[in-house]
Specification:
With 193 residues, this protein is of the alpha+beta class. Among the domains are: 68 residues, no CATH class; 61 residues, no CATH class. Helices cover 26% and strands 21% of the residues. The strands form 3 sheets. A two-stranded antiparallel ribbon has the order 1-2. Strands 3-4 form a two-stranded antiparallel ribbon. The chain starts with 6 loop residues before the first helix and ends in a 12-residue tail after the last helix.
Length: 193
């Protein structure tokens, strides 16, 4: 049996649909409007390369904004170009930290709403990289594969071992001469046996 609509019901339904299509601007939309792309000149970056030479440079282009990236361990601040802001906010990035409700610093341990994490600093004198410990998540498998080895070999890791493995990978990929000095790389290229 088909429903019959009165004129008043049609008008009310039309108003509800119109209101649903045009919501009030959200805080994220206001944030985007305030930080709309504009030309900005930043300069005097002093970055050191592998030989510790100082380099001065300047850049003119769209500015940067700090957004909070969602991860399994909370929201972490990331400096991104304003041109990418709308796309990243659709992917779940936030204008303000949802963990504490404010604007945290760039350090992962600066947010009062997240637990503090152990970390290591890169031993290279010109590198400012800080490696934080991210313990493995407790994932419970409901229908485990009988052929899968489940001995817990990696479940017994410590913050020291996890950060050392990540720092070793960073040093090998970013500071080859330091990696050789520390004995992380062999002098023989891979594949020459």
């Amino acid at each position: 049996m088909a429903r019959t609509w009165t004129d008043e019901q049609k008008k009310a339904a039309s108003e509800r649909a119109r209101a649903a299509r045009a919501p009030a601007p959200a805080a994220d939309e206001l944030f985007q409007a305030q930080h709309a792309p504009r030309e900005e000149t930043t300069g005097n970056y002093h970055e050191a390369n592998e030989t510790n030479e100082q380099i001065g440079m300047s850049r003119t282009g769209p500015g940067f904004v700090t957004l909070y990236k969602p991860t399994d361990y909370g929201y972490f601040p990331r400096k991104i170009p304003v041109m990418n802001m709308a796309m990243l906010m659709q992917l779940g990035y936030k204008a303000h930290c949802p963990d504490c409700g404010g604007d945290c610093g760039t350090d992962e341990n600066s947010c009062p709403g997240r637990p503090k994490r152990a970390y290591r600093d890169c031993p290279h004198p010109a590198c400012k990289r800080r490696i934080y410990d991210h313990p493995p998540l407790n994932v419970v498998e409901t229908n485990a594969d009988p052929l899968k080895i489940q001995d817990g070999a990696y479940a017994q890791s410590t913050p020291e071992l996890r950060t050392q493995a990540t720092m070793d990978a960073h040093i090998i990929s970013r500071h080859e001469s330091l990696a050789r000095t520390m004995g992380l790389l062999s002098r023989q290229p891979v594949g020459d046996n």
